[in-house]
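Two proteins, back to back. First:
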Amino acid sequence: MSAALESILQQHPVWRGGAVSCAAPAVPSGFASLDRELPGGGWPAGALTELLGEREGIGELQLLLPALAALSWAGKRIVWLAPPHLPYAPALAAAGIDLAHLAVVRAPGRRDALWAAEQVLRSASCHALLAWFPSARYEELRRLSVAAVEAGQTWVTLFRPLKAAHESSPAALRIVLEPEGDGLSLHILKRRGAPAAAPLRLPVKRPVHALGRTSFPAPAAGRARDDRRLGVPVHA
């Protein structure tokens, strides 16, 4: 009986709950050691990922740039939603991101940001969504999780404060980021499969200049603009 069951498991893409690897779609992170710790071998698509940090600029964007660059040069659309500061286009281009496939969306409030995120996912035209939700509620995250599942192939990453680690979340992957010397320590709080045994350290350069120090001015309701100086499409 056990031999027959093992034969079925070997012949079909059946995921075992205690295993890290699974057949779920994923976007390679660009870090081999990290991909080995992520179910599917990369950032999960069709689900939420949360990156939790005590402050900005500790290397959180540098962690994502290799995957974003690969997507952009494959002609995939990337959307940044409600970043806290103005994106610095020269740094993004130097990191290998094709700016023609990057859009930055501003939102005047939490509900506007949630609505925009849902529209991005339901449009089925975006392959990566990075969103800053410092005060998101569980029911709002749940709505995004459902939209991400319906979108299917979209990699969704939410930046949230460290205190959110003590809150419930529907995210499939939750990682606490901490600066450590000239690198970044990743503590995987939640993932599909077996819990992570120990934090993972990656050589991530800091400071990250993909986001400048200039805060966004308050967007006017219902208006949109294309910031030619930055070279990044920006929409209200």
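And the second protein:
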Amino acid sequence: MSISLAEDIRSVTDLKRHTREILDQIHQTGRPVVLTVNGRADSVIIDVKVYEKQLNAMNLARLLSEAEAEISSGQTRPARTFLAEFKNARNI
């Protein structure tokens, strides 16, 4: 996701004065808006749908990282063993 330096960095004062315009921009572009306080980046506003996608991607990355760590440490078992245990546990 890219940010337009000309459009996506706004002050908190701008947010107070132009809330609807800034929210519309976020929804239309899908890009986050960086809010500044005293000229420094302070917060980021992001569209909820974009946030949900990013949250899902982060959760998947975390799960994959955990799985890779288990593989690296030898915590594996044959797929047949897992499937048999899975079926038995769920009475399949």
